[in-house]
Amino acid sequence: MNADEFVEAFNNAKDLTELELLAELGKSISDDLEGHEKGKVLGTLGNIYYALHRLKEAEEAYLEALNVYLKLSEEDEGFLPYVVGCLYNLGNLYQVSRKFAEAEKAYTDALKVLGDVRNDQRLAILTALGTMYAKLDMKEHAERCLVEAFEMAKVKGDARLLGTLLNNLAVVYQRGGRKREAAMLLKMALDALERVGEDLGIAAVLQNLLPYLDEDELRRVMERLESFGELPIDLKAKIAYFKARRAEEKGEDSAKHYMEAACLGFMAYRNFGFQSINFMHCLDKVIESDSELREDAVVLKKVILKYYYGSQKVEIDFDSRVGRMIKAVLEGDDIYEDGILEDTVRLIAEDLLKAGTKV
């Protein structure tokens, strides 16, 4: 298999099993190649590892590909776009790994290589960098990147990307107290995404619009959100958190919504490395309530603190309901109940099992 056939095989891969096989094949192929052919295989190998969430190996492959293209570009500037591509991939990898300083450097190095060139690569990098700045609440930096990306997307006429950028920029304005501008941008984003029928993008915009709606509009939008099929887990967490806050404001039972938000928010953090909502705050809200979920929240918080944040000061009651579920999985049994809490505890227990943890 040559380099182009390897790239094509990756593009046509149907499941993780095929990717695992390609990962093994890619390592042996790259050793026998040089120059551009080697760079193509290494870059694709990095993408395969990234898809498999083998992030350390993905980083190594991307860095090796970057070195190949840096050397090639010294003799032929035609290879500079490949340098930019490698840096962009590294930026995305570091962002998912929560190595934000490294991600920023990779993205900004890519922009330096591009110089004044305004092309699709620049647009992609500005979008990724601006979105990361928005997540980190670096409002001025985020606004600068997202506005430039928006102007480029507008010229290109990409309605899907325009909607995404307007939504992200609205979040920046929202956090900066510029609520009127945020609401206007969200409506523009919704119009753009409605034109292309981008359900996931529409759902994200609708979720951000919730605080601006009156009671009737809110009911209609919540019904529409719940009519969507599979939403990203971070978006589900935000919707559950909004429901919890609304219930709390109305004096209704909010604990079940806060628990759902906490579980979904934790899983988003565990699976993808970003915090969509403050799941610890949500657990505290359940703990402060008189709900029957209170003890579950106490134990779940301690488990997360001990095994994901490394706290040695917490003692976990493994005779509690959550504790018994964890022990069941560690002892080779299963959790014979369904629900978001049970799914979360099962995931945690499986992590502990893989790590060889004893309780």
From TrEMBL:
SMART domains: TPR (SM00028). The keyword Repeat applies. The keyword Repeat applies. Keywords: Repeat, TPR repeat. InterPro entries: TPR-like_helical_dom_sf (IPR011990), TPR_rpt (IPR019734). This is Uncharacterized protein. It comes from Archaeoglobus fulgidus (strain ATCC 49558 / DSM 4304 / JCM 9628 / NBRC 100126 / VC-16).
